[in-house]
Amino acid sequence: VDFLRSLFSRTLGLSPGEKVLDELTLDGVARYILSGTCKNIICMVGAGISTSAGIPDFRSPGTGLYANLQKYNLPYPEAIFQIDYFKKHPEPFFALARELYPGQFKPTVCHYFMRMLKDKGLLTRCYSQNIDTLERVAGLEGEDLIEAHGTFHTSHCVSFLCRKEYSMDWMKSTVLNDEISLLNYSHFPFVDVFFLDIVFFGENLPARFFTTMKMDFPRCDLLIIMGTSLQVQPFASLVNRVSNSCPRLLINMEKTGQSEFGMGLFGFGGGMDFDSDKAYRDVAYLSTCDDGCMALAELLGWKAELEEMVKREHALIDSKDAKTKDKEANQSSRSTGAEAGKSDKTE
Ligand code: OAD
Question: What global pTM score does this model have?
């Protein structure tokens, strides 16, 4: 086996890298961050970081979205995000979009932990599969983010000649007020329609995903992977794009991204290796993303700051929501008053 390993390693360029962490634990990762040599952190995240905000993930048995789509009568669960199916039957997607539309959920501890990494100058970028925009709500900006599967944040006219951008507020009122059927997406490309910037199965990821990934991953000092089953490509294979020495921390309810085809058993890489006797850089912290981030924050001495940030930001969101509700209530009572005035006059 040793002979084969060294032969394959040399042939495939998969020889193991330097051991950077003094221990394959969360403590080891925290000591590495505190050492000052870890300057470029990339986060890779998925639906599991938003479940505590009230948004279901996709594949968790029982609670995941794919287990709860019976009412849409789909041929198979993933069809809801399949571009060919959507072009013929857009209604299920839009019904779901109405249920999950941003603005009804608050970012989680995990989202704010990433914001802290940004504020401390440690976040190279967050690669997200989520379309819920909670990273932005938590304070990450366009430059900090790759929304690999698109986002509800923007929408564009799908006509190549037009590409006009529509604001999230305008789109929101259209989606929530059930006016989406007016868009006549199924007649594309014969009518000038707009569309959400969401990547469906069967569509390309944004070009920026590919250009930025080539720049970011080779210089990454620590990859933190959170709340994802790492089952969808090409996103999942990003874990293999960091250098052989770069430590990878998974914070998730279950172990994911482990080596396929037994490659890990031979120590060849090709995925995460938490448990084999060749493991040297991958750490799995099995917990909720929020608990994992809070535990890491505590080891880094950032716990009070993180708790304070979550409290302050949530209070801000609550007060904005209250103001919006007041405004809406005032507008509707004014328009009811105007209607009553009109009917008084006609009487
Ligand atoms: P999945 O639903 O496949 O995986 C979510 C992962 O998060 C699972 O491993 C869960 O165990 C874990 N999890 C759930 N709640 C958690 C919590 N509170 N704390 C920690 N872990 C938790 O979601 P994704 O990996 O994001 O694509 O799915 C990837 C892509 O598949 C999505 O972007 C979507 C979907 O089809 C498109 O729509 C194109």
Answer: 0.86
